[in-house]
Amino acid sequence: MLPLREKDKPIIRKLLSAGCCARCILRFCCVSVQAAYRQPQEQTLEELQAFIVDEENGKCQDCAATESTGTNDKSHDAALSETSEDPPSKRAKLEPSVSATKSEEDSAALVKQKDEESRLCVVCLGILQELCGTIQVIKIAEAVKAEKYEFDSLVLSLSLPAQLCVREHSCWLHVKEEVRAKGLVLDKDDVIQVKEAFKWIMQGQVAKELGGVAVVTKSAFEVGVEFTHPETDTDCHFLATTCPDCFKPTKNKQSVFTRMAVVKALEKISDARFLKHYPCPPTQPTSSCTPQDIQCLHVSVFIAGRYNKFCRSLPQTPWVIDGERRMESSVEELIAAPILSTFRADGFNFSSSGREDVDVRTLGNGRPFAMELLNPHRCRFSTAEIKQLQETINKSSDKIRVRDLQIVTREAMSRMKEGEEEKTKSYTALIWTQKPVQREDITFIDDIKDLTLDQKTPLRVLHRRALAVRQRVIHSMNTRYVDPHHFYLGLKTQAGTYIKEFVHGDFGRTKPNLCQLLKTDTDILELDVESVDVDWPPAIPE
Amino acid sequence: MDCGEEKEHAPSVIDRYYTRWYRADMKGKPCEDHCILQHSNRLCVVTLAETHPVLQKGRTVKCINYQISTGCSRLNNKVSGKSKRGGQFLTDFAPLCRITCSDETEYTIYSCIRGRLLEVNEAILERPSLLLEKPSTEGYIAVILPKFDESKSITENLLSREDFEIIVSKRGIAQSQPS
Ligand SMILES: [Zn+2]
């Protein structure tokens, strides 16, 4: 039983003759009972026709309709039988006075109804008609199955041609008075959107077809359905002359007539102006919308861990100069490859707590990193499976090693960046001195505590960073003598201290520097990161 | 695992990351040679070549002046942000500073390349001796950032180290030959 009221009748009548489909009529009657949209559209159409025929047939039924739901039902049944192919005997029993005289009109109504059933809707262009039928449900479900996603809930997202808004607006203007007459508070916003109706009809069916997964509004898994309708693309064009401000060309958009822009322009245009440029109600299309390929999207999954880098000729990220690749691999690629294939993700974004130069090793517990995995097809893994994945990464290369690998939340990832500035880092550097030094010449370095450096942005990064003098603290240092020209220098520093520049001085731009301390030119031959003291992600016991 | 690291011979910071370019006899003035150190990131450091008269004949530096005209001082150069907004834009023959030696000889140091001035070396104002002691590192004159699309072409008018050394060696012969 459709939840319609007396005041819906003028709306229904107007929209039926305008060429609206049964479900679009429900939308404009502001029917928000989902079940009403789910029933077969033919049945809805019959019920609508019956509902208005009631009144046309005579005052007595109209009176009955307003008395109670019981009689309303009965009279409705009667109206229904009149336009259907029920045996005449039944009809005669229910409505003897009408049926006898109306047989001629009956067949005319029947033809009219067939016509209305097959007619393409002027508002939804078929989307709420055959495009949300069982065939379409199966097509969507098959497309999703083919992608082999792992998911336990879904949500449909719908992309509609922008001109649907224009047609909707035209139709709204057509019945605006009647809708407002229904109640003081009803307005255009109360008309149920095509999108909503489509989802009400389709979501449950698609979910059922996919093995009964849940339909959740904020599901991590989105099934994107898109329709286009080239035939009516020009519907929007008049808006560009009435509201040029709304349609400014942008670089990455194919057309200026985006849904957003069209909606904005429709909000601005006066009714009179709209009616001057666009037919009301909209004209009859010859073809229905074209469904585009189904686009599935799973929200990103985040994975974090710590990595060691044991190689002095391995960049952290792909190193490309003038479009040419410099090194054959990178830390992020070595880590990402097994993860991408395990999660079957489309891509990734890599981030880490600082980074080391291509020639620097990262030892100790390693450097925290996190990866956003884009559109993962699989994302539920047991602890054992993640451990296995970590093993796979570690077996794939001896240049890197990963530990503490774990799935994390997007929010937790920010903790890695938060800690960066305050945290300390430990390094070991192999130092060369121009003048020969004795063991005792360097021991004073061990006693230096909390040495504050003024570091100008190093020349090696100045091309891409702002010029500034930054104060950084070396908390402590220790030395290990090798020979008169070499010693190992251990440093514990505030994060963000440039170690290489502290050693060679960077044209005197880092002060004090090791050259000044030792009163000879010094250079750095090797550098290892010994520890990055960020306590995220949490350690996982081996 | 060191991926074939070599430890015996250690090239200097300049050897490792910079290319040396030269301009000999700047503006036709004999031996006023400039050396431009270009980092692999395209940034350039302007220095005196070791053959520059300031570094010859036991001269010492009396003063360095970045005020290149009444209206323009390179010391007023300020850059802000990653894009280095506000930096003075220099052409090849833009003067950077004037160096006066204790024997009252005066030399003008030029940009030699087109680009945005990022900084001048204020340390040499306090310690002019840095110019003599470390002409190619702490005694640098200025840092210039060429435009991205000119990072290759700006050195086309400059001499490579080999070409410069040939010129210098010919000078030696010319000087030793009696005229
Ligand atoms: Zn419709």
Describe the structure in brief.
Chain A: One of its GO terms (cellular component) is mitochondrion. The complex is a heterodimer of chains A (542) and B (179). With 542 residues, chain A is α+β, with helices and mostly antiparallel strands.
Radius of gyration of chain B, in angstroms, nearest whole number: 17 Å
Shape, principal axes of CA atoms of chain A: elongated
Q: SS-based structural class of chain B?
A: alpha+beta
CATH architecture of chain B: Beta Barrel
Q: Give unreliable regions of chain B as ranges.
A: 1-9
User: What proportion strand of chain A?
Assistant: 15-25%
Question: Any overview of this molecule?
Answer:
- The complex is a heterodimer of chains A (542) and B (179).
- Chain A has helices spanning 9-18, 22-28, 34-38, 41-57, 59-67, 69-83, 88-94, 96-101, 103-118, 134-146, 163-182, 194-209, 237-242, 259-268, 271-277, 331-343, 383-396, 410-418, 439-442, 459-462, 499-504, 514-518; strands at 153-159, 214-215, 221-228, 290-291, 295-298, 301-309, 320-321, 324-325, 347-352, 360-374, 400-408, 424-433, 449-456, 469-483, 486-494, 510-511, 522-532.
- Chain A has 542 residues and is an alpha+beta fold.
- In chain A, strands 6, 9, 10, 11, 12, 13, 14, 15, 16 and 17 form a ten-stranded mixed β-sheet that branches. In chain A, strands 1, 2, 3, 4 and 5 form a five-stranded mixed β-sheet that branches.
- In chain A, a hairpin with a 7-residue loop joins strand 9 (347-352) and strand 10 (360-374).
- In chain A, helix 1 crosses helix 2 (22-28), helix 4 crosses helix 6 and helix 10 packs across helix 12 (194-209).
- The longest helix of chain A has 20 residues, at 163-182.
- Chain A is elongated and about 110 Å long.
- With 179 residues, chain B is α+β, with helices and mostly antiparallel strands.
- Chain B has four helices and eleven strands; from the N terminus they run αββββββββββααβα.
- Chain B starts with 12 loop residues before the first helix and ends with a helix.
- In chain B, strand 2 and strand 3 form a beta hairpin.
- Chain B has one domain (13-160): RNA polymerase II/Efflux pump adaptor protein, barrel-sandwich hybrid domain (OB fold (Dihydrolipoamide Acetyltransferase, E2P), Beta Barrel).
- The A-B interface holds A 310-314, 321, 398-399, 432, 456, 459-467, 504-505, 507-508, 523, 525-526 and B 1-5, 7, 10, 12-13, 17, 39-43, 45, 79-82, 84, 118-119, 121, 123, 130, 134, 137-138, 140, 143, 145.
- The complex binds zinc ion.
- Residues 20-21, 23-24, 121, 123-124, 128 of chain A line the site of zinc ion.
- Chain B: Belongs to the ABITRAM family.
- Chain B: This is Protein Abitram.
- Chain B: Keywords: Cell projection, Nucleus.
